[in-house]
Amino acid sequence: MRLKALEEKLRGAELENGYLRELLRLARIEKYGPGSEKLSDEQLALLEFEPGVSQAEVQAESERAQLKLPLRKAPEPAKHPGRQELPAHFPRIEKIIPCTPEQCICSQCGKDKDLIGYETSEQLDVEPAKHFVLVTKREKRACRRCEEQGVETAALPARIIPKSLVSDRLIIDTVVNKYCDHLPLFRHGQTIRCAREPSGKRPPSSPRSSPGTPRGSRA
Fold it and tell me: Which residues of the chain are modeled with pLDDT < 50?
């Protein structure tokens, strides 16, 4: 009941407000003359701030064509360019994430759900350089029955730097890093020293000559 009474009171206030606004408009039209009948309520209200306005000015204002402003179109939503695809020539290594045991069981019948496919996504990944010690074992053979024949040892493959502590592959990698990637030799040596640390922490600085950089080279 109280809500209904408030609604009726609000409706009566709106009617009374409209009636008073119409009386105010008629009073302003009578004040500024018949030419002001074509003016809107907002224009009539602005005339109250110009006490020296004449009826001729009001008539000219009423005859002036209303400016039609161009409607501003709402900006169209930007189209999403879509997810960029990774190069097809990169090798793919698949990582399958299985569902949880709860997801494998149907909650309605209690039986196992069938595998119907995969939700696939791709990310560009990298495998850090892996340093290791290459142990080369050359066979040594001898005849136990003919000791005078001596021992035969497998031939040592040709090396870029004979008797070096670094392999040919590491030497090539060092040359490529310096002359193609412009990486200073001392930084390449720091990378190798970091790989030698079991904890993975960067070791303290040391002379630039290290097992990772061939002697006689300058950064």
Answer: 65, 203-213, 215-219
